[in-house]
Design goal:
mainly beta, Immunoglobulin-like, extended
């Protein structure tokens, strides 16, 4: 009786194994602060600028450090995102929250040494220590930078 079940169970197991979840993740060497480097050695360098006043102004600058033009590819209309975390790491604000973005692929071409900047503002509710997380949502040059700041 058990011999009739072995073949279907083996087939089902093989199918479950083949269709099951798997990871394409790779361990990457850490890159220097403020830099994202592609696998061919060309570099897109990003920097984060935070200015605190009555509002917090955040600017994510992305510069082509390669000796040729670089195309940033974005899988949808959103090119960047910013979030503010409080001292306990809880998100208190996200720029993209409540916004809608097109689902169209878009690109941004940067010439040698050319820079593009994505700047936004946040109005803090209370004083304290915060961390801004800035993300370039490019699929070929993704960048995430963090910087702490204090609202007096």
């Amino acid at each position: 009786m058990y011999s009739r079940l072995i073949a279907p169970l083996l087939c089902a197991s093989a199918l479950a194994f083949a269709c099951g979840p798997f990871s394409n993740s790779q361990e990457l060497e850490p890159t220097p602060a403020h830099a994202a480097v592609d696998t061919a050695g060309r570099a897109v360098v990003a920097a984060l600028d935070v200015r605190v006043g009555s509002t917090v102004e955040v600017a994510l600058g992305v510069t082509n450090a390669a000796d040729h033009r670089v195309e940033l590819r974005f899988p949808r209309g959103q090119t960047h995102d910013l979030s503010i975390l409080d001292a306990s790491g809880r998100e208190v604000w996200r720029w993209s929250a409540g916004r809608m973005f097109t689902q169209a692929v878009q690109t941004k071409l940067l010439g040698t040494g050319e820079k593009t900047t994505y700047a936004e503002q946040w109005t803090p509710i209370e004083s304290g220590s915060y961390t801004v997380v800035a993300t370039l949502t490019s699929d070929n040059y993704p960048v995430e930078l963090r910087q702490g700041f204090t609202v007096p």
